[in-house]
Amino acid sequence: MDKEKIVAQADLARIEAIIAEYQNQRWALLPLLERIQQEFGFIPPGSIDLIAKSVGLFPVQVQGVITFYAGLYTTPRGKNIVRVCRGTACHVRGGKTILKLVKRHLDIEEGETTPDFEYSLETVACIGVCALAPNIVINTNTYSQMNPKKVALLFGRKDKV
Ligand code: FES
Questions:
Q1: pLDDT (tens digit, 9 = 90+) per residue, 50-72?
Q2: Any long-range contacts for 144-151 (C-beta under 8 Å, 24+ apart)?
Q3: Is residue 126 in contact with ligand 1, taking CB distance under 6 Å?
Q4: How far from chain centre, in Å, is Cα 73?
Q5: What's the 91 CA to ligand 1 centre distance in angstroms?
Q6: Distance, CA 93 to ligand 1 centroid (Å)?
Q7: What pLDDT is recorded for position 40?
Q8: What was the pLDDT predicted at 161?
Q9: Can you give the pTM of this predicted structure?
């Protein structure tokens, strides 16, 4: 059973309780979506109708807001979010190779999540520490001056991050 179905079955009551806190507050759509995502790691698609009804919008309008905001997701994400920098400084210092190696270690492409929901892989334009390029961010930790050996140390054993 995939994570979404587990969430849908086990936590529907929890979703309804959160929604109840924001009942009839159209202005609160974004905080409500963020709260649900914070709780589950994503916004279960099965909750969109309930959310829309509670704030007096159509489901398509709620879906539109989710699509608009890059930080909102309707698919389960990994416990660890890996962001490989694709900015210019990182690129010229081997960022492309680093991304390729991370993909190989995790066996996923950009935008995907490992089947065990341990990792999701994304790329970012620049994380602001160009002098230490190439860089990777895992959750809130930055790993700088990456090279193939460091990538292997980070991802060779998934339980070591
Ligand atoms: S380009 Fe990678 S940190 Fe700026």
A1: 999 999 999 999 999 999 998 89
A2: 146/94, 146/98, 147/94, 147/98, 148/97, 148/98, 148/101, 151/98, 151/101, 151/102, 151/105
A3: yes
A4: 7
A5: 8
A6: 10
A7: 85
A8: 45
A9: 0.71
